[in-house]
Amino acid sequence: MNITQLEQLIEIAKRKTLSAAAESLHISQPALSRSMQKLENDLGTTLFDRTKNSIQLNETGEVAVKYAETVLNTVSNMRNNIIEFEKKKRTISVCSCAPAPLWRLLPLLSTAYPASTISSEIKNIPQVLNGIKESQYQIAILPQAIDDNEFLSFKLCEEHLFFSVPPAHPLAAYPGVYLHDLNGETTLLMSNIGFWHELTHEKMPDSYFIVQDKAYDHKELVRLSSLPSFVTDLAMEHEKSVSNRIQIPILDQEANPQFYCIIHRNQKKQFAALLDKLCD
Q1: Are residues 147 and 267 in the same domain?
Q2: Residue 222 contacts residue 187 (beta carbons within 8 Å)
Q3: What tens digit of pLDDT does each residue of 5-53 get?
Q4: Angle between helices 3-15 and 59-89 (to 10 degrees)
Q5: Where do the H-state alpha helices sit in 44-192?
Q6: Range of the domain at 58
């Protein structure tokens, strides 16, 4: 008995006749008949009621079809799970609470592990923290080290937030501002920015944020409008900053985070090449 015979049995049940099943399976009717006879011999029972001009599944055959479907579903699940397991072995999953640290980390991972696929997501801080603790991710990026002996934390990079305004804006001459000073401002904001979203909304509850999903649209609005926006030093390094803007430092401690790369302690050996680069 083999998988092919079980697939043939199910096809006969589906097509109702041997000839229709043989046509669907792209084999001859005599070959399909011989295959079913061998299956019956292997099982030690008859699965079909045969007459001179027809063959039909009997009651035992109907039961056999149900078992065949179960076996094939199990084989399919086995195949898919093994493929997914093998894929995970070759995939390094990263979750960050902000976009910019990924610009620093992902090239390091690609260099250290060229044969691996690297997947990354941006979530808020509780989601990142829960994800690394529940082993949903192998690497987490957070704005603080984890005080837990199961994990190791390594400094990755610093980032500093600025309020970006045109020269005529009333705040343009300020040497620095706190986020609560900006409460009530209508401000351009990018989506999918992780903890920056929660921070700005928490500190500026009365502000109206015009959120853009596409980086190009956001850049064009910043370039063409007089609306203020946020930008960080890492974003200005990574992308061209708009020249007709003044960048005012945000003085809140939370707006100037030190990001940490966090891994499970038992994965220290696996990520030794990365840790060497982080500690350079």
Answers
A1: yes
A2: no
A3: 999 999 999 998 889 999 999 999 999 999 999 999 999 999 999 887 7
A4: 130
A5: 59-89, 100-112, 125-133
A6: 3-87
